[in-house]
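Supplementary Note 3. Input sequence used for the single-chain structure prediction.
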Amino acid sequence: MSQQKFDRDRVTGAAVKETLRSLLEPKSEMSDFTPLEQCLLVLAGLRSQFVSALNSLTSSSRPVENEDLSFTVCNHIQILLCSFLDEWKIFTSFGKVPAVRDTLKITSPAINRIRSWTGLSRIRSTLLAHGLRNRDGTLVRTWDLFNSSKSPTAYQETVLLGKLAVLVIKETLSRHHGEYHMAAQRWSQFHTPIKRQGISTVEEANEVFTNIKAKMSEISNHLAEEKYRTEPNL
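The predicted structure, written as discrete structure tokens, is reproduced below.
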């Protein structure tokens, strides 16, 4: 091997090692988690939300019979799917790591099925997470939005996509158990109890609702009286 080729290979190898190090090590001394660990933690959090939503729809012990509730939960699953795809893009950026590259190959059938619904992001942005407006502020006609976007409207398709996302995350966390387990342990050290905020009982909520409704009615009556006094008699 010539000295020139040896030097070139050494530089290339060093560059590859530096790239892998930047992906697998914290960005700074103040960072508690590597970029890959952060991604695994986010995926784990999304899995918990997916599982909760899917259980509310598919649990045999408490099946959902309310169509409105099923519709609402499916909408939430579609929002989660968009968040999952966003995070999966980040995970894909670690593809130079051999173990990650293998995970990407193994999970590709499920990912391809989810990604085939190319209108998910548009539905999320204009209908589900933001209320019936395009980016330019114009109103969205729901029927036109669904007919012009490839997004699932069938209940079982949305459930399927949610299950596939859980499958992908489960496989990913299993294949990268070491990194995830260590990150989760460190993450748990930061845990603090979430304080209760807001009304806790139905009775309290009903009382507050009734009082606010009465105040609104009082304001409405007061404005009507003022208008009657200031307008000329016809």
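The first helix runs from residue 3 to 24. The chain has nine helices and no strands.
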